[in-house]
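Human:
Care to share another protein and its fold?

Assistant:
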Amino acid sequence: MATSETQAEPGAGSASGPAAGAGLRRAPLILRNRAFGAVWLGQVLTQAAVRMFQVGVSWWIVAYAVREAPGLASGLFMAVCTLPAVALAPVVAGTIARFAHRSVLRTAAGLAGAASGTVALWAHGDGLPLTAVYAAALALATCQAFFDPCLTTSVPELVDDADIESATGFELSTQSLAGLGGALLGALTVDRAGVTALAAGCAAAYLGAALLVASARFSTAGTAGAAGTAGAGATTGTTASDPSGPSAAEPRRRPLRRILAELPHVRRILICFTAANLFTTAVFVVIPLYTRSILHGGGGTVALLEASLGLGALIGAFTGARVPGRPTVAGACCLGVMALALALPGLVAHRPAVAGCLAVAGWCAGAVSVRFVALFQRMVPTADKPGFFAVMQAVLGASLPVASLLFGFAGDFLSPRTLCLVQGLGLAPAACALALLGSRTPTPPAAGLHTHPGKYTGTDTATTSGTGSSRGSKSLGGER
C-alpha cells in the first residue's frame, strides 16, 4: 500500500530515495503525513468537544440545575451519552462499510456542530430545560459513535504499515487529549460563562474538525484485501475506497454476530474489559459528586481531577507499547494498579493525592489500550474491520449506561468515598480473569494467507514490535 510520504498532500515533505525516506521517518507521523495529521487533529477536536460538553453539563447538573437526587440526574445524563455507541453498532458498521470514510467523518462532525450550535442559541435565548440538554447529549454521542470507529477503520487509508504503533499511539491519545482539554474547559466554562458558552465552544470545535477532514486525502489502497503491491500502493484519491469496487469485492464480509465468534481470544479479552468498564467508567459520575461532597470544591477542582485523569491516559497512550510482557499479563497488572488508584481516594481525601491517583489510573487505561488495540488491528481481517470495531465499541460500551445509572443512583445514598472503594474492589476480579486467560494469543498470519485469525495460536511477542510483525499483516489492514 502507499507509504505515508506518498499519501501526504503535495508539499507535505514527500521525497524519494533512501536518505530522504529515512529523514522523513525520523519526523513524527502527524508531521510527515499531512492527511493523517489533519484527520487525527479532527478527532482530537470532536472528542474534546464531546468531553467538554459531558464534563461541563455533569457539573452543571450537580452544582446548579438539580437540587434533589443530583446523583441520579448526573448518572442518567452519562447513560444517555453512552447509549448510541451500543445501540447503533450494526447501523454504524453498515454505514462505514457502505459509504466513503471521509464523507462519514465529515458528516458526523458537521451534524454535531449543528446540534451544539442549536443548544447554544437555545440557552442564550431562554432557560434551557434539562430534557433539551439530554437530547443534545444524545445527538452528540450519536455523531461520535460514527466518527470514532470510522476513523479507526480508515487508518489503513492514511498511514503506511511500518507506522502501525505510531498511528495507534496517536489515535488512542485523542481520547486522552480530549479528556485533558475538555475536562479543563468544561466545568470552568460552566462556572464562568454558563452553558451557552460551553455549547458555542463545542460547535466551533466540531465545525473545525469537519473542515480538517474535508481537507485530507484518503488512499484507495488501504482497503484492498490482498497484500499491497508497489503499483497498487501508489494509487491515491480524494475519497475513501468504494466498497462496491473491484478491490473491495474480493474479501467476503461475515455477519456481525460471527466476527467475535471467529475470534475467541479477542472475545474473552473484550468480556474482561467490559466487566472492568463497569467500575472504571463510573469515575466520571463519581468525580463531580466527590468534588462537591468531600472536597467542597468548584469547577476548578473538577477540572483538576478530570485533567489529571486525562494527562495520565495521554502519557499511557504514548508509553503503552513499551510496557513489557504479553498483553494479557501486562493488562492484568495495569488493571490491578488501577484498582488501587481508584480505591485510594476512598481512604485519603486530600486534593493532590486524589489527583495523583487519577493520573495513575489514567496511565493504566492508556497503556492497556495501546497494547490491545494494536493486537486487534493486526488480528482482524480488512473485510471485518468496519464490523469488528463497531462491535468492539458496542461490547466495551455495553456496561457504560449501567455503570452510570447504578453509581449515579447510589451516589444519592452512599458517600463518594464508599463509591471509590467499590470501584477498586470491583476491578480486582476483572484483573484476575484477564491474567487467567493464558499466555498464548493468536499471531497475525502472513499477508494474504488466512481469513480466520481467531483460529491461530502462538506467542504475542510480534504484536509489540512495529517492524517485525507489521510486514506479515498488510493483507489484514494491520496499520497499528
About this structure: Residues 1-24, 221-251, 440-480 have pLDDT under 50 and may be disordered. The chain is about 70% helix and 0% strand.
